[in-house]
Amino acid sequence: MAKNGGRKFFLIVLILVMLGALAGGIYAAWYYTDGFTKFPWQKEDPETPGKDPGTITGNYYIELDGMKYGDGGVTGLSSGITYAVGADFGTDYTVTMTARAAAEDFGFTLGAEPYKWSNVVGDDFTAGFTITRAATGFTVEYGALDEIIAGAKGNTVTLEDGVSDTVADKFAMTVTAANGYSITVTFSTAPESIILDPDHIIFGDGSGQEPEEPEEPEEPEEPEEPEEPEEPEEPEEPEVPAMSQDAQEFVSSIKELMTGILKIYSDLSDDELAVVTGDPDGIAMAQFRMLIEIGNERYPELSETDRQHPTVNAIKAILDYAESNRQDGLTRAEINTLFEMLNEI
Asked: Label partner for 269 (CA 20 to 30 A): which of 168, 218, 228, 293?
């Protein structure tokens, strides 16, 4: 009986030990695979190509857009991005950024010294980024690649022509807990965002810079209307000098006497006019002769300037016309011509 009782006890203890070991194994598997969601052989998440969760140990991870990343993970990066941190990192953790080998080596100058990117692989570039920590996560902000290098190295930077300005493929990020445990992740260069607008689909390039909006095509300029030809300016008439007092009296007296005589003659019938003016030496024509003589006597007394005046010239032309036609007697047509010449003055 004693032997049988001892065997039963031994079996019970053995079963309890095996159950305990099994339970511990299951718990460990659950803990280290984040609730049976992440396994060491699981590399790339099929729903997020280009991303890799890496190896997650306990709650040492960072999280982005609902996906967790452990050591060796490949996550996304863009300026202003915010990562959550797993609970095991606590609140006293540090974040550092280091240079890693780029797909293609490239050159740059630091101050006046030439460098290759391969010369700085492994260097700490944290100072070139702005990292804002909080209890539950942190935000990473940065500028262009040359600004990151200058911020970390403390000198002016010029990249060689044709260098890709993407940042994601040139750096690794390490998050370290207060107890010294750390995870290091790299960054995918796959598009981080797709921006839709009615005319374009724009993929982010992983540089962290906002994609530039396409320029609106310039509307063709409307052809300028041909300028209407300017109308030629009419030549200015020469300024007429003022007449002297003598010239004014000469014009006024001759015009008044001539008008009076012509008015008398214009009221006569053709027969009467023929009788009155038919005798060049008759009393009727003596009025014209006296008027012409007065005009010809006073005209030379005028100054040279007055004699050049258009109005004085017009009066002299009337006197000359009357003088030339008086010899044969004035006809109706000649009287009308004299009237027209006077009216034009």
From this structure: 293
Q: d(Cα 152, Cα 155) in Å, to the nearest integer?
A: 8
Gap between the Cα atoms of 192 and 203, Å rounded:
8
- In our burial notation (b when 16+ CB lie closer than 10 A, e otherwise), range 187-198 reads bbbbebeeeeee
**Helix, coil or strand: residue 71:** strand
Report the distance separating Cα 314 and Cα 312, nearest Å.
5
Q: d(Cα 129, Cα 338) in Å, to the nearest integer?
A: 107
- Report d(CA 265, CA 330) in Å as an integer: 9
290: how many CB neighbours lie within 10 A of its CB? 12
Phi, psi of 265 (to 5 degrees): -70, -35
Query: Residue 160 has what pLDDT?
Result: 92
* pTM, full prediction: 0.45
Record the tokens describing residue 296, joined without a space.
Answer: 């010809």
C-beta of residue 140 within 8 angstroms of C-beta of residue 131: yes
**Confidence class for position 171, pLDDT limits 50, 70, 90:** very high
- Is residue 63 scored above 90 in pLDDT? yes
Residue range 329-344: mean pLDDT, rounded: 75
- Across 85-114, average pLDDT: 94
- pLDDT surpassing 70 at residue 25: yes
Backbone angles phi, psi at 3, to 5 degrees: -65, -45
C-alpha span between 88 and 178 (Å, rounded): 10
What is the C-alpha end-to-end distance of the chain, expressed in Å?
A: 169
State residue 324's pLDDT score. Answer: 75
Element (H, E) at 132: strand 130-133
Q: Would you state the torsion angle of the CA atoms of residues 338, 343, 344, 345, taken in this order, to the nearest 10 degrees? A: 100
> Exposed, middle or buried, 137 (CB in 10 Å: 0-12/13-18/19+)?
middle
Nearest to 176 by CA among 94, 105, 117, 97: 94
Distances, alpha carbon 245 to alpha carbons 120, 148, 291, 334, in Å? 107, 97, 20, 31
**CA–CA dist 197, 203 (Å, integer):** 12
Give the model's pLDDT for residue 3. 54
